[in-house]
Amino acid sequence: MSKRPTIADVARRAGVSKGSVSFALNGRPGLAQATVDKILAAADELGWRPSNRARSLSVSKAFALGLVITRDPAVLSSDPFFPAFIAGVESVLSTRGQALVLQVVMAGESEQDGYRRLARDGRVDGVFLSDLRHDDPRIDLLVELGLPAVTLNRPDGESPFPAVILDDRPGTRAVVEHLIELGHTRIAQVAGPPAFVHATARTTAFVETLAAAGLEPLTETGDFTAAGGIEATRRLLALPKPPTAIFYANDRMAIAGLGAAQASGLTVPDDLSIAGFDDSELAEYVHPGLTTVRADPFAFGEAAALTLNQLVDGAADVPDTELPPAQLIVRGSTASPAV
Amino acid sequence: MSKRPTIADVARRAGVSKGSVSFALNGRPGLAQATVDKILAAADELGWRPSNRARSLSVSKAFALGLVITRDPAVLSSDPFFPAFIAGVESVLSTRGQALVLQVVMAGESEQDGYRRLARDGRVDGVFLSDLRHDDPRIDLLVELGLPAVTLNRPDGESPFPAVILDDRPGTRAVVEHLIELGHTRIAQVAGPPAFVHATARTTAFVETLAAAGLEPLTETGDFTAAGGIEATRRLLALPKPPTAIFYANDRMAIAGLGAAQASGLTVPDDLSIAGFDDSELAEYVHPGLTTVRADPFAFGEAAALTLNQLVDGAADVPDTELPPAQLIVRGSTASPAV
User: Fold this and answer.
1) Which residues form the HTH lacI-type domain (chains A, B) (predicted)?
2) Is A88 close to B95, i.e. CB distance below 8 A?
3) Tens of pLDDT, residues B124-144
4) What is the pLDDT of residues A151-193, one digit of tens each?
5) Are A48 and A141 within 8 A, CB to CB?
């Protein structure tokens, strides 16, 4: 039962991160030569060698990529991001005969087991890392498991994996500036849950853009569902001085808010301007058409799959991919406030 | 290179279907004893034995179930059925640590290869069979591959697999009867693509219900997308005698049609009644709320996963599951026609 040295042991001995060890042992560029030398020396001293599984992975392919989602399974139908992202991934995989292995981990269960299960017996050739969190522990886990990965956006810690980046903030700034230019001064947002990096990014861009114009932000937090959007809208409209414009962190809440405003007798955009985020299919077709921000999760999935497949195919140095940032789409649901 | 006898060879010799052979060789009930005897005799004479893969499947589990979708990958984001169905499946799988292997096969490619890939190396323990077609060739293929399966609704040919059944027709009849009771006589439908069994079922129920009331059906065919719903709506409203009520085969087309009618200056429901199918999340929240039919694809996925897992767990005789039929949900988008 003598324990084989792991990447963590090598990292400890060399005094570097596990990510750096993975870089060095896989011959990927980006580290100082002195660091590489130190790591290789530590690996030699410990007698480190790649695990059988890692080696078998490099010769035999599973023809499948993995996605672990740590949310309520219902999010797959209530949040338009994942279906569109998965559709984009499949648009690449279907041309290569690859499958997508989808592992949903319930809140409170071990997410790490989800990745271990995917790694077990080499059932996937690589994984997508979504819903990044602060100092995400999954980076080290995947290095340890020897699984190629691509991250959706760049993690805030060190990561040996290429990232596919889609910046929500320019589009958020553009929609808020659009409302300010129309003459609105009481602008509210219905934000998404603050646990998600992407929800926080939109909120920060909203608050900063208003502050730059000398305006006070008015924020209600929603949960990305239609019902949550309705409730937040009702609370905002019941204020002594209700907003004249509301920006919602996704289209689903915005379309529900549009219906709630109309049901309460308001005319959109004359009495209230409404803007969303996603440019989901129905945004163009509700009446009035929804001003929104187009983030294109389908293209995100497509780019992530192309990037991950470069790694799986053995490319030595796969760069980050920067997608065009989310952009403002102006339709009929926003106009100057009544005077 | 002597070829081993297959289930098809046994079926041919015994003069029965491959499904019956599968039933008999797996000791499942439901066949006459004389038929079982004939099949076992034929298998003996041919020296038939289960393949290695089939045997290894019975002892080692992949802890994954498979779904092959033969449609444009974009359907995963444009059609609410699959995300909700998959969410329901995952609500069961996530409690057992199972993964879902999703294989999208592009139109024109070999769908059978999709199933063979899933069966290869026992990477799934069973599969869901969706989008059933007339005399579906996948039934025999799965029998041949030795893969447990559950069908979504009952195929029209012979099948050894349990089915999960959700009947769209009672809900469709109910919505059409609701429009007739309101006093409408010019009732149109925007149908889904006729290639799908479920789209045809809704169309047939629509036409028959109108015929029973002595009314002529008016049909435009859509493609389940919002854009297709808009186009079909415009064609219907441009008729010399336009309909006073439109039933859409999904909510997405209905919500888009609602927007198109409102954009053309019509008031819903005073000038035009609109009804959908799905009861998707936004149906309740658009203004006016959408009268629709609730089919509950989440519950469909849940029931299908529970049924398939019974087979995977080795249950001898898994019965069909009949879900509550789709039902009418009346909201503000339907009313009596103006006189």
Assistant:
1) 5-59
2) no
3) 999 999 888 878 889 999 998
4) 999 887 889 999 999 988 999 999 999 999 999 999 999 998 8
5) no
Q: Residue type at A88? A: G
Domains within chain A, CATH numbers bracketed: 7-49 (1.10.260.40), 53-166+298-323 (3.40.50.2300), 169-295 (3.40.50.2300)
| B281 with A76: Cβ contact below 8 A | no
Residue at token pair 């035009």: B272
**Residues of chain B falling short of pLDDT 50:** 1-2, 52-59
Q: Is the ipTM of this complex over 0.90?
A: no
Please tell me which of the candidates A73, A101, A281 has its beta carbon nearest to residue B226.
A281
Of the candidates B114, B171, B101, B168, the residue with the CA atom closest to the CA atom of residue B145: B114
Contacts for A200 with CB less than 8 Å, ≥ 6 apart? A194
Whether B282 sits inside 8 A of A256 (CB atoms) is yes
Return d(Cα A267, Cα A247) in angstroms, integer: 16
3-state secondary structure chain A: CCCCCCHHHHHHHHCCCHHHHHHHHCCCCCCCHHHHHHHHHHHHHHCCCCCHHHHHHHHCCCCEEEEEECCCCCHHHHCCHHHHHHHHHHHHHCCCCCEEEEEECCCCCCHHHHHHHHHHHHCCCEEEECCCCCCCCHHHHHHHHCCCEEEECCCCCCCCCCEEECCCHHHHHHHHHHHHHCCCCCEEEEECCCCCHHHHHHHHHHHHHHHHCCCCCEEEECCCCHHHHHHHHHHHHCCCCCCCEEEECCHHHHHHHHHHHHHCCCCCCCCCEEECCECCHHHHCCCCCCEEEECCHHHHHHHHHHHHHHHHCCCCCCCCEECCCCEEECCCCCCCCCC
Give the total residue count for chain B: 339
HSE at residue B223, side-chain half, CA atoms within 13 A, is 10
Q: How confident is the model at residue A1 (pLDDT cuts 50, 70, 90)?
A: very low
Q: Is the Cβ–Cβ distance between A272 and A246 less than 8 Å? A: yes
pLDDT at B54: 46
The residue length of chain A stands at: 339
**Alpha-carbon distance B101 to B92, whole Å?**
14
CA neighbor of B212 nearest in space, from B220, B222, B204? B204
d(CA B74, CA A147): 28
**Phi, psi dihedral angles at B67 (to 5 degrees):** -135, 120
Determine, for residues A286 and B284 on separate chains, whether the beta-carbon distance falls below 8 Å.
no
- The residue in chain A having the minimum alpha-carbon distance to the alpha carbon of residue B73 is A87
CA angle B246, B259, B338 (to 5 degrees): 50
Taking the C-alpha atoms of residue A225 and residue A246, their distance in angstroms, rounded to an integer, is 16
Cβ–Cβ of A104/B90 closer than 8 Å? yes
CA distance B172 to B177: 9
Q: Which residues of B171-189 are buried (b: 16+ CB within 10 A; e: fewer)?
A: bbbbbbebbbebebebbbb
Chain B residue numbers touching A288 (CB-CB < 8 A): 263
Whether A274 has its CB under 8 Å from any CB of chain B: the answer is no
Strand order in the sheet with A273-275: A218-221, A187-191, A245-248, A273-275
Disruptive mutation site among B61, B89, B103 for chain A (greatest number of A CBs within 10 Å): B103
